[in-house]
Queue: 2 jobs
Job 1
Amino acid sequence: MSAKSIFSLVQGQPTQDGNRVPLTRLVPGLGQHGAEAFRAMDPFLLMDHFGPMVLNPGTDAGFPPHPHKGFQTLTYLIQGAFKHRDSTGGSGLLRPGGAQLMNAGAGIVHEEMPVPEQLETGGPIEGVQLWINLPKAHKGSAPGYTDLQPESMPWAPLPGGRIRVLAGTWAGVTGPAQTPARMAYAHLELEAGARFEQALPEGWTVAVVPLRGSVRIEGRDVAADTVALLGEGERLVLAASSSASLMLLAGKPLGEPIAHYGPFVMNTREEIEQAVLDYQQGRMGHLD
């Protein structure tokens, strides 16, 4: 099987979100690169690498209440601890190595804030949030969330590294996250010089996103906080140019129309207008 080549390289854009949380927007939405960004990364909509940062004692940095509708978020924590609350009454603790899969579906309001002890004492925070589009048939589904604790997706050893699989199957390991969109998602760490190979379904969107260090794919270097969107070929083949930490994404495109406005992703402009109205009139619930 032939190795996949790089179709495009996109440098992540530094920005802030929530309460002054520094992040790098790795998979941008309509706001930065137009509809082509969504079509190129289908079924993935957005990917943010937040941190790494060290909270100062007494800070209120985090992600206070905000709405979503029409997609799912998969938030993976590398360092720190976050407390989740949402308008369905759900709550949970996100620990290092754990994740949270939230189905916005028909509409939800949620917040993710560092745990009270960390707000008081400060400490490191780092993680990755991925937005996954929902097929039209699931955009009206009941909102809710699932905790994916570190114990449910432990590191698996590899030659020259290790892998933690959140969804789908990588290196023979299957992750716990279940989504209507068919996808595979993992955190890979490699020592300098180590190689990784994986066969992938034909026609799937495939991207490699280093968070630290760099990797080499088909003779091209991919640096930290850069998205390497891969093109033709049946097999992902990469080697670590230096000690590297990276996210692996693969998903079957939905191929559906996309309408987008801020935290809402639907299929038509009329559905977006209804989403805004639903939020304004409190039909997505509230957080006290």
Job 2
Amino acid sequence: MGLDEERIAQAASRTEILRPPRQSLATFGVTSINYYLVTEPVYSELEKKDTTETVIREGKVVAQKPQIVTPYYLTRLEGFSGDARKYFEMLLRMHGADAPGVFYTYKNEPSELSIVSDNWITVVNRLNDEIDRRGNPLTSIIKGEDELWDVSLMKFIFELTRYSLRDNLMQMNERGLLKMDSRGLPADARLRIEELFQQVIRGEREPNELQHELERWGVFEEYQDRFYTLFRKKNA
């Protein structure tokens, strides 16, 4: 393990989820989780002295509706590095092209950064009291490292996903969304394709987004007549 990897692993191991969300990610909708990420200033470590200052980063993690995917689908996604693509190909070899899994996508929306003249324990107690008064079950507090605070946030997202996975899979299975058809598509994917068609008709999505989704599943030929009819109407 290289020096950078050791530093990242160390930052992750020192990250603490002091207040996790009080409920898991929504299975059939978008979830917004507010967070406070508290750290001791990096200069306190560099100067080797105690500090009564705490850095507070506020933001929101937006989790999109979980999608059922397969290793084949993952290998067709754009925007992933070569290492990630190799991992997807490994999954394909290990589990087959059509093994269903759950794919989560997130967006971090940072909002404020402040430095307060209190130690982090006092700050966390005050934040907990404020969250309790507001009664928001989807607000979290994370204790991380200042220099690698984004690693701490990624660990939070990982733990959030792991916590939610069981409930999400159970609810999807109850609705039959994990069932695979003869083309190797889960029922959830068929529903998503139909939803994309409707969104294109309403002007909420571009036709090329629908085309890419059909190509990722390898079913463009199956839908091409319907797609071209829609495309001609949109461009008439």
